[in-house]
User: Fold these one by one.
Assistant:
Number 1:
Amino acid sequence: MIPTPDLSHLTRHDLEQVYDPAEDTFLLLDALEQEAEALRKERPLICLEVGSGSGCVSAFLGKVLGQSSSLYLCTDINKHATHCTLATGKQNKIPLDPVTCSLARPLLSRLRHAVDVLLFNPPYVPTDTDEASSAQGSADIAGSWAGGADGMEITNRLLQDVECLLSPRGRFYLVALKQNNVPSIRSRMLEDFGLTSQVVIERRAGREYLIIIRFARTTPS
């Protein structure tokens, strides 16, 4: 078993400002551990986590891959999250490179068809559109959970860029809620972008039913 990253350096103040790893985080870690052999075999060069929060997931991916030359890029709209991500990387001896920005838009031109592992645990809780927009605008902890209509407004923005980001062998891991209409997400990504998908792991956590989906190309581009 691969140990969960050490987050003991995060203070109470930190966890009031960024998303405290919870059941959705740990399910994504379980999915990555389940895929560990395949991920190591691919020898990814560029890994990108969108919405890194505490940095827990990217630090765990670094542990999964072990000694490698991988670049671990992490983005978050919350400036405090980028500070926490950097600190988590140092605490766990994983060289995380955080960038404060919205999703991956500012990196698209440089990372076009270059990302081997893309990770996104989005704000998936259904809220009204105004609440989601306000949360993104304020760039604080609310941006980590307020997902707008069907919990998909923020996710849909990234889904438009996934094909552009993924390398020919790239894998995209997405955390979704059952209410997000997972079959629709999967069919849309196949029809619009030619990305096949598979449910890696799913689990009920309290009132939420969480699903980790892996997307990849049908054929190399």
Note: The first helix runs from residue 12 to 17.
Number 2:
Amino acid sequence: MSESRSSSGYHLATELVHIDSDAVKDNYNAASVPIYQTATFKQSQADGSGGEYDYSRSGNPTRTAVESHMAKIMKADRAFVVTTGMTALDVILRLVKTGQEIIAGDDLYGGTNRLLTYVSQYSGVKVHNV
């Protein structure tokens, strides 16, 4: 059985390991995307308008590269990467509307189960634990 090719002509396995170098500006031309382990970035202006990144929680070059790569392999216009499970849950709960459904695992963290139970009772969102 052969693996299907993407619109770029590459097999999925190749797409998964090939990172677009245009996603992040790298002054040193690293062969792979560097992991930026800093909380803040230097700014050229005192008002914080001097750079693409200011604080890692709001964005950093590593996350930009991951988002770009995820969008590429999922054939999406954009991907959004968050740093914690609760942040992911917050994003989901802000997007889901009354009458829609959430499919969740049956072995979730207790706080997540309580929150999803609350949402299903008071927001008209059905939650399926599988």
Note: The first helix runs from residue 12 to 17.
Number 3:
Amino acid sequence: MRPGHSVVALGSFLLPGAIAWGSLGHITVAYIASNFVKENTAAYFQDILQNNTEHYLAGVATWADSIRYTKWGRFSKNFHFIDAKDTPPTYCGVDFERDCKEEGCVVSSIQNYTSQLLDTELWPWRRSQAAKFVIHFVGDIHQPLHVENVAQGGNGIHVKWESSEFNLHHVWDTSIAEKMLGGIHRKPYDAGFEWAANLTDQIRSGKYEPDSKLWAQGLSLDDPIGTAMKWANESNAVVCTHVFPEGPEAIAGQELAGDYYEKAAPVIELQVAKAGYRLAAWLDLIADKASGTTQFVDEL
């Protein structure tokens, strides 16, 4: 299925001023999830989000970023990450008690907003808001620099990208993914839709098909902290292997659009694919529990 006029209209209406797993990553994760959720899950979240189109997840995938620096939404600014106080590349690891701020982190936020989604006594607008946060935070936790403390998740490390200066976090959020797709020309919804279609095919019958059966193992609504910590540690391991393979100091000021990009791009693609597949499984569990049915996540 190719994006039609509705995708173009959606992009022009919702696109923020700055392309930021950035927008492209989050939108792609959401479209992948849309391709894997069960029919009853789609109907459940279309109702909660008041959107019965195929864009019901993608259309809200960047909402949490759009409100985090507003006066109203600043309470959520720490919810997008967890600061692993490790020492890459010699040691990578996330510890919930050590690394989650008192105000909250992406791990505790997945737990909190999943619980709100399941609370049928909450006002509908609260459950809709909770859904938007869950959709976004499952994407965030799969971005390696959202689970790392060094230089504020790479924001304080300046590097070069095709001779221009960026911070490392931006490169992992946006630059590598956009280069993989040959540029997105300020149309992240079109690009995300197409990328999601390709990754969906790779999950169903391509290079990711064998391993994808393991991606949703261990998901449990009874232990959302444990589930999210598994994802966080998996993402954090990439910090040692691909983000800082020679240490944070060695990467500062380096041109990353060459060999570094070639090694990092497949990892980012895999993380986006995992995030979308796992988001679908998580939303299925939520919808099934809300409707009183049981779903086994390895049946996606």
Note: The two ends are 20 Å apart (CA to CA).
